[in-house]
């Protein structure tokens, strides 16, 4: 009976823990509203969030230390995983008003990175890997002025005029709306990318994990 009661409690989400892996950026700018909704619906479920680089989180997921990852895509294909896109992201280059005055019209990507200090996230973040792939596709030798781990600091460095940052518009709405950062128009098209939910393949998800996925995808 105790086993049956425990299973019933788990199905009703009256008990249990969900272990989530995500970067600090994804957690702050994307995941928090979904965590808030999940906690409101299922207040007795404990929530554990591990913030780290995607490569580290993938290792923890495969070891069973995490139930679910929310990460920037694209990532290397892995046949042991199920990857479900859940949101679209749009990247851009942005600087403060002093750079807007210097760059009066559309500029080529090569001219931008050659003539202006670029601020990016440090390797091996997925965002940096995506930017590197754009540079490679355009045959540009890319060496940013500032390599920074923290996405928030990428924005902060740009706001005080240290260079032009590579940012995600959805994660910089406040700065772009308030004109603390202003998008620099470039001639090339920056492809869209996605946030994805990652879970192990051929694994039965916990009730809590499935409910969180349902909330994010709804």
What does this structure look like?
With 218 residues, the protein is α/β, with parallel strands linked by helices. 40% of the residues lie in helices and 25% in strands. The chain contains nine helices and ten strands. The strands form two sheets. Strands 2-1-3-10-4 form a five-stranded mixed β-sheet, with helices on both faces. It has a five-stranded mixed β-sheet with strand order 7-6-8-5-9, sandwiched between helices. Helix 2 (24-41) crosses helix 9 (207-217). The protein is elongated and about 60 Å long. Residues 1-10 have low confidence and may be disordered.
Let me know the average pLDDT: 90
DSSP strand tally: 10
Number of helices: 9
Q: Which percent range describes the beta-strand content?
A: 15-25%
Strand order of the largest sheet: 2-1-3-10-4
Rough shape? elongated
Helix fraction bin? 40-55%
Span from first to last CA? 35 Å
Please summarize the sheet with the most strands.
Answer: 5 strands, mixed
How do the SSEs run, as a string of H and E?
HEHEHEEEHHEHEHEHEEH
Class by alpha and beta content: alpha/beta
Runs in which pLDDT lies below 50 for 5 or more consecutive residues are: 1-10
Over the alpha carbons, how many angstroms does the gyration radius reach?
20 Å
Topology summary:
Blueprint: H1 2-11, E1 17-22, H2 24-41, E2 46-51, H3 54-63, E3 68-72, E4 81-89, E5 91-95, H4 97-102, H5 109-115, E6 118-121, H6 126-137, E7 146-148, H7 151-159, E8 164-168, H8 173-177, E9 182-184, E10 193-200, H9 207-217
Parallel strand pairs: 1-2, 1-3, 6-7, 6-8
Antiparallel strand pairs: 3-10, 4-10, 5-8, 5-9
Helix pairs in contact: 2-9
């Amino acid at each position: 009976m105790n086993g049956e009661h425990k299973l019933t409690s788990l199905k009703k989400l009256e008990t249990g823990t969900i272990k989530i892996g995500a970067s600090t950026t994804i957690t702050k700018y994307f995941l928090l509203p979904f965590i808030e909704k999940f906690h409101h619906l299922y207040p007795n479920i404990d929530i554990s969030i591990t913030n780290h680089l995607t490569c580290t989180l993938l290792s923890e997921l495969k070891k069973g230390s995490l139930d679910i990852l929310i990460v920037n895509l694209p990532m290397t294909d892995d046949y042991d995983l199920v990857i479900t896109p859940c949101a679209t992201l749009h990247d851009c280059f942005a600087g403060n008003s002093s750079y807007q005055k210097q760059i009066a019209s559309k500029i080529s990507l090569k001219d931008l990175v050659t003539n202006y200090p670029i601020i990016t996230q440090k390797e091996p973040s997925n965002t940096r890997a995506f930017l590197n792939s754009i540079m490679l596709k355009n045959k540009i030798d890319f060496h940013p002025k500032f390599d920074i781990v923290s996405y928030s600091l990428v924005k902060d460095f740009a706001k005080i005029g240290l260079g032009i940052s590579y940012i995600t518009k959805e994660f910089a709405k406040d700065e772009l709306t308030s004109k603390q950062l202003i998008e620099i128009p470039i001639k090339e098209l920056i492809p869209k990318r996605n946030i994805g939910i990652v879970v192990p393949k051929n694994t039965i998800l916990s009730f809590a994990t499935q409910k969180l996925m349902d909330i994010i995808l709804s």
